[in-house]
Amino acid sequence: MADITLKDISLQAYGLTERVRGLRKAYFDAMPEICTERPRLLTDFHNEHNLFRNDRISILEKARAYRYVLRNRPLRLWHKTGVMKMFTRL
């Protein structure tokens, strides 16, 4: 198989679009956060189904726990004009 090479592999000829530049800035300006919702929802699910008593949890129970988290966790959308929160249930 022949090697594929490029004469100039630099990206100097290309720039970032305004949208990508804004996303890049938002990514690097963001402060790290810790989400406490997911562990709380998982604990609630395990308590409701008495899973803390089990030595092992089946793959089906893990899938049900994941579904519970997705159904009960609010959806948050960020927009460049600020934070827009939208709460929904699946």
UniProtKB/TrEMBL annotation:
Protein's organism: Desulfonema magnum
Lineage per the UniProt record: Bacteria, Pseudomonadati, Thermodesulfobacteriota, Desulfobacteria, Desulfobacterales
Domain of life: Bacteria
Molecular-function GO terms, alphabetical: lyase activity
Domain spans labelled PFL: 18-90
Protein name listed in UniProt: Lyase domain-containing protein
InterPro entries to which the protein is assigned, alphabetical: PFL_dom
Record's keyword terms, sorted: Lyase
